[in-house]
């Protein structure tokens, strides 16, 4: 079933919010199918004329595909008479705006709200839209020290669901504050379907509001032996990554020149080129893996002291694997 059709189904069903039940959908892909908004009955009049007017205008904007306007009107109607059905309408409007994190939050609230609860059909449709929304967002478990610190995302209150931070794909800046601690900012890039843990530890402030002084110790100037080793290891990693990139490009070039499909080549020359492409690809894989490991080890050696007399610093390092359906790698981050 085409993606557009499945999307239209969720949208069209939304405007049946106040009718007894939604028009039936086709069963392709076990997902709701498009329903005609032209056959929808108007909402039943309530005891609040302003509420009725807002609903009528919201449904009209929704039918025209004006999702932002429809959502704003649904939100105003919800302020007058909050219910599970207005929450559902806001959530599906947010989904159409591609605000998937907000859509997930509103749809989850709609499924649990007991004020004018959803019908069975509406609940099924909301659960389906919620599942799709969660498939487009990144989810993060936050480990913040000290406990009770305030977290803002781009200076706004974060969207939390089941204890996890939800973010639409994109770049964000997290701001973490707590009484007696220095403000900490961390930039992150959210990707669809990521599920990671973010650990942020704040540095204490002195009594005059400045960063608390650190205990003296170690050399105050220059780099330690361990840091020089880290630089060497990291440099070796960068070189290895460069070698891997070179052989990777060589492998792709030879594979294109060979023109073999599924291992079948048209002549001996093509077969030889194909074998050379495979060999270059193997070298590229080994070099890239080694380069990633060495570069990561170099960062750790440079920033994290091991044993002996340490120079206390307010620092934190995070090394995490990043796995998704679209990419794989290692994420390095922290505050130093």
Describe the structure.
The structure is a single chain. The chain has 336 residues and is α+β, with helices and mostly antiparallel strands. The chain has three domains: 3-134, Tetratricopeptide repeat domain (Serine Threonine Protein Phosphatase 5, Tetratricopeptide repeat, Alpha Horseshoe); 138-201, Sandwich (Immunoglobulin-like), CATH 2.60.40; 225-311. The protein is 45% helix and 17% strand. The chain contains eight helices and nine strands. It has helices spanning 3-14, 49-63, 67-80, 84-96, 100-112, 120-134, 225-258, 268-303, and strands at 138-145, 150-153, 159-161, 164-167, 170-177, 184-190, 195-201, 316-323, 328-335. It has a four-stranded mixed beta sheet, with helices on one face. Strands 2-5-6 form a three-stranded antiparallel beta sheet, with no helix packed on it. A two-stranded antiparallel ribbon has the order 8-9. Strand 5 and strand 6 (184-190) form a beta hairpin. Helix 4 (84-96) runs antiparallel to helix 5 and helix 5 packs antiparallel against helix 6. It is flat and about 80 Å long. The model is unreliable at 1-42, 213-221, 308-316 and 322-328 (pLDDT under 50).
Summarize the SSE layout with pairings.
Elements: H1 3-14, H2 49-63, H3 67-80, H4 84-96, H5 100-112, H6 120-134, E1 138-145, E2 150-153, E3 159-161, E4 164-167, E5 170-177, E6 184-190, E7 195-201, H7 225-258, H8 268-303, E8 316-323, E9 328-335
Parallel strand pairs: 1-7
Antiparallel strand pairs: 1-4, 2-5, 3-4, 5-6, 8-9
Helix pairs in contact: 2-3, 3-4, 4-5, 5-6, 7-8
């Amino acid at each position: 079933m085409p993606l557009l059709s499945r999307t239209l189904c969720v949208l069209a069903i939304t405007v049946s919010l106040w009718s007894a039940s939604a028009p039936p959908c086709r069963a392709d892909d076990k997902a709701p199918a498009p329903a005609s908004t032209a056959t929808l009955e108007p909402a039943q009049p309530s005891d609040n004329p302003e509420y009725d007017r807002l609903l009528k205008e919201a449904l009209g904007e929704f039918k025209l595909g004006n999702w932002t306007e429809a959502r704003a009107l649904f939100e105003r109607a919800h302020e007058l008479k909050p219910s599970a059905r207005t929450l559902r309408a806001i959530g599906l409007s947010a989904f159409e705006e591609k605000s998937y994190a907000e859509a997930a939050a509103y749809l989850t609230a709609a499924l649990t709200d007991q004020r004018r609860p959803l019908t069975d059909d509406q609940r099924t449709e909301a659960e389906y839209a919620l599942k799709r929304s969660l498939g487009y967002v990144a989810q993060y478990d936050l480990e913040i020290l000290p406990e009770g610190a305030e977290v803002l995302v781009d200076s706004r209150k974060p969207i939390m669901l089941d204890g996890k931070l939800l973010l639409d794909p994109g770049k964000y800046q997290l701001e973490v504050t707590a009484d007696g601690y220095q403000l900490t900012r961390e930039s992150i890039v959210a990707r669809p379907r990521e599920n990671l843990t973010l650990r942020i530890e704040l540095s204490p402030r002195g009594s005059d509001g400045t960063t608390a002084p650190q205990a003296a110790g170690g050399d105050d100037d220059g780099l330690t032996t361990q840091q020089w080793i880290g630089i060497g290891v990291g440099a070796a990693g960068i070189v290895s990554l460069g070698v891997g990139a070179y052989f990777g490009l060589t492998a792709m070039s030879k594979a294109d020149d060979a023109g073999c499909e599924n291992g079948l080549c048209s002549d001996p020359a093509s077969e030889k080129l194909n074998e050379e492409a495979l060999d270059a690809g193997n070298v590229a894989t080994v070099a890239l893996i080694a380069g990633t490991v060495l570069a990561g080890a170099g960062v750790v050696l440079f920033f994290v002291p091991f044993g002996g007399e340490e120079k206390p610093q307010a620092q934190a390092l995070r090394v995490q694997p990043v796995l998704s359906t679209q990419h794989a790698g290692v994420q390095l981050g922290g505050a130093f």
